Structures are given as C-alpha cells and as structure tokens.
Hints:
The chain is mainly beta. It has one domain (about 5-150): Cyclophilin-like (Cyclophilin). It has helices at about 30-40, 130-135; strands at about 5-10, 15-25, 50-55, 55-60, 90, 105-110, 120-125, 145-150. An 8-stranded antiparallel β-sheet has the order 3-4-6-5-7-2-1-8. The termini are close together.
Amino acid sequence: MAETLTFTLDTGDGEGKDVVIKLRPDLAPGHVERITELASEGFYDGVVFHRVIDRFMAQGGDPTGTGMGGSDKPDLKAEFNDEPHVEGVCSMARAANPDSANSQFFICIDDAQFLNKQYTVWGVVESGMEHVHALPKGEPPASPGKIVKASVA
C-alpha cells in the first residue's frame, strides 16, 4: 500500500508546489484506500480547494468545485479514531450522516480539536504545509487554489 500522497498545488501564482502527506492506514484503512485509489485514477487532478477558512482548514476533493459533489464510488463507513485534529492533519469531509464521506477531504490549518472523533483522520502533512497556508481564502475563494496533480508513492 502507498505510504505517501503528494498534491502538487497551484496557490494562484501558476507554480507547482508539493504537499507531501503521510498516509495512515493504521487509523483509517478504508479511507486511505479510497484516497489512493482516487489519486491513482487522476480524480483529484485539477480539483480546486472550494472552501478555505483562515485559522481552520482547507477543503477540496469535489470535482464540481461547489462542495456538493463527489466521486461515483459508494460513500464510506466512518472510521473515526483518536488522532487529534491539529495543524497538518488530513481528514474526510462528510454530510450530516457519519457514513457519508466520499472524496472530499480537508487539511487542518490550525488546531481544530472540536472535530475529534467526528471526522475520519487519514493522514498528516509531512512537508509543504506552508503551501496549504498560502491557498486563497474564502467560501469559495474568488480565485481558488487547486491540485494540479495528485500522486501516490
């Protein structure tokens, strides 16, 4: 199984910047499998960060860019775990139903421990967190940053 996921981001200046995420199948094997499968299929390539809230999180993974879309794969059963939602943690976005995560995810920009045990943590940023911080802010941002390419290793 893949150990890292790399998102090459365009934060608005047209230059690719790598964010390397250590995958945590020990915490959420089903979610890591989904993320790596989607990344390997090119699903995340060109997808924007449609919701970036300063001092909170950056959310992406919706091919429509609206926050309402996902993949055509079935929703995932929650794999809530004890990993705290702190800066750099990657977790799955979902609707009100705990078992509704699909392709959308968020990266914590700051401490967000009020989300603990309510969202599935599947990874942590190993390098490039400064590029996540540099994503244009907004809900949605006027000119959103995007994933140019997602790759697994």
